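Figure S7 source data.
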Amino acid sequence: MRVTRELLDIARTVATEAGALAARRRSEGVEVAASKSSVVDIVTEADRETEALIRGMLADLRPQDGFFGEESGAEAGTSGLTWLVDPIDGTVNFLYGIPHYAVSIAVVEGDPDPLTWRGLAGCVTNPASGETFTARDGGGAWLGDSEIHVADAVELPQALINTGFAYGSEMRAEQGAVAGTLLPRVRDIRRLGTASLDLCFVAAGRTNAYFERNLSPWDHAAGAIIAREAGAAVKGRGDAPAGRDFMLAAHPVVAAALEELLEELGA
Ligand code: LIP
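Tokens for the predicted L-MYO-inositol-1-phosphate complex:
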């Protein structure tokens, strides 16, 4: 569809410019500007500046669309489309200079609720690695100019699993306990710190599955479209869509086996 091609071009253009700004700020040195839900849930001035750049560009290019960003909140539009923005996903990696963070921009149809929206186009770009993942509805998933697909199905003992942990200490303890009981049942676990890239790594076949609880809509909106278009099942528990309660992305066969195991482990 021409519309989603145009929307993806906008997402890619804006994310690329925002990524260049984030990389410049990283090279100049980064400091914590404030903490949010906990002392380890931090925001930097670069997060705020990058989101302001993205919000301004989208307002110029798509004035009738809604916006929902991690740092500056939501504003409804009149078009039925909303842009979901995480200006710097993997903020702690960014703060420490770990080259694994991303600008994540998605556009969805319907309310900005992951339980009901339809993802139309998404772009996740890591300025440090130069990798840009993209997808549009029905257009496949891409890393640069190369189409990507989820890895072939494997048995769980041969599965490499991505996961992540919330910022609240009580939920982190629960999540850590699940990870500890999961570890001997799979090939290995990777905690890379950037949900949008975790989803893109499943899409590219770099890991076999990703799961996490308590993600915000902007964390997964773009990566979920990319993983879906790469052939992954992207889901919540049972028949529920992916959302804050639970997010799982994997080859459909792996997803079914992992969901059953995670339910057994109390994830
Ligand atoms: C982060 C996610 C990560 C998750 C962290 C946090 P942020 O997003 O990308 O996967 O485990 O708790 O939500 O805060 O860096 O934008």
